[in-house]
Fold these 3 entries.
Entry 1:
Amino acid sequence: LHIQPIFILTEILFSPRPAGLSPVRASAQECERRGGFCSQRSCPPGIGRVGLCSEQEFCCRM
């Protein structure tokens, strides 16, 4: 009975996540296809980060 909460937590942590709910590593072309643009270091103020273009670039979108 005490193992059940641990099992549920493990299922949540290791279950596959649906695409589009978290920032995703993608190419610059994929970022542009999603209506965004690549920006180094950070996105400009007022613009949200929606993914990654590379290790040093973020995909930003209004």
Note: The chain has two helices and four strands.
Entry 2:
Amino acid sequence: RCRFHSTVSRVCTLRLSAARSTSFVVDEVSNIIKEAIESAIGGNAYQHSKVNQWTTSVVEQSLSQLTKLGKPFKYIVTCVIMQKNGAGLHTASSCFWDNSSDGTCTVRWENKTMYCIVSAFGLAI
């Protein structure tokens, strides 16, 4: 009886591992995005002249690390950096996709002088 339970547990674990290796895992994507933001912006204060460089770096680093996961997805990554000055920002996105295989993750990061909002979409191939 224990042997059967052990086998079932192992099979379930293997299936979960296999599913995880080909699925869009929000926590995994979120960590990649956070690392890209920290690497590109870090402790910098908002500088209008640097925003284009920072957004490009965040998007490229995120895409590079997501691609290295080797999962069967096409990725779309967007990045908005906005100075903290009391202005409002409203965004929306829409995508026709398969809820069972595709996914999205949005990370909102901030420091004393700016906000950085990054969204990643994973569309199964």
Note: The beta strands are 73-83, 103-110, 114-124.
Entry 3:
Amino acid sequence: MKGNFNQTNQQMLDSILKRSCTCLYCQALRANSNYQPAQVTESSVIDSAIMADRMMKQRRRDELTRTARMKRKAQIQLKKSSKRARTNNSEIGKDDNSNAIKIWNFGGPTYICEHCHALMWHEERLQSYGCRKPTFGICCKRGQVILPPLKEPPPYLTSLLTRDGGKRSANYRKNIRSYNSMFAFTSMGGTLDKQINKERGPYVFRLNGQNRHQIGTLLPQEGNKPRFQQLYIYDTNNEIQNRVEASRSGERDASLDETIVSGLQSMLDENNTLAQSFRMARDRFKEDDYNNFTLPLLGNRDQDGRQDNMPSTSEVAALIVKDPTQKHYGCDIVLEYKDMKPKRISEIHPKFMAMQYPLLFPYGEDGYRLGIKYNKKKGVSNKKYITMLEYYAYCWIMSN
């Protein structure tokens, strides 16, 4: 009996060692350093089985402990998330599959840039400078970008922008794009894709190719109605009606308030240097004399853009006698009498933005131009001039 037992188990153990089984039982047998194939006994097999059983139970206990620990950790994280959501007034929504969607709420901007004093979020800091004392670069590039302070809007425009301004203010804010368009000096050009809206679905505005801003002649062609800058010169006795009609390509928009149009017209005449330049052209000459003159919108400035962005009317435009031999700088825009195709406005012309968005730049102030220097600081940057992105990033953050 005993011989048969040893012989049978000897064969079983030899088979286990040959095929290198990875089960706990086989591992326990291999772990027995006293094992000798020729000396297999009943007690050695029982000891190995007991060891394998212990290892199996220990592994199960480890798995249960690990599962409980992970469950507890998930519960703690859920409590922390709920507490953070209540603190930041976060909201939890559900998508179509009823999965919870977390909405991040960073609260208000509570950090102040030490250079330009702009209000910033902690998440907008420069990551390479650590969190203890946040440093910001998107506002003023750590003090390298210094531009003239922004002026407060004229009182009339301020009254239209406030939420407690009544129905007139609500009408202006609802139709602000239409009001801006009717006072714009330039048009947006490009190849409009008209095929995309023939199918069902919401309206889509798509341009093929590059977008551009254009400006036309001082007066409209025969039989055409005035548009854009021509509205400041031609038939100004009916200017309000002409502007409302031009805002919808000849179709009146009943939601536009003509009293608002009249107020904006007076505001721009009083404050906007571009509007004053075109009014100067209207008042100085009769229609018969227009064909002898041009109106160059000057692109060069004598003063540094870091100190001044409000040039006078004489620095913006000059109505001069037409001279074919006279040369103009690349950024100058020369407006002629009638016979002229629309001209493209250079993106680096100081009045590029003010001509397209007169209600964002109610004083006709200069925008970006080449040659605005950095406020040099030691060990910061080797660049000399401010980029267009840095310029408008500074203006946008300062306006808020």
Note: The mean pLDDT is 76.
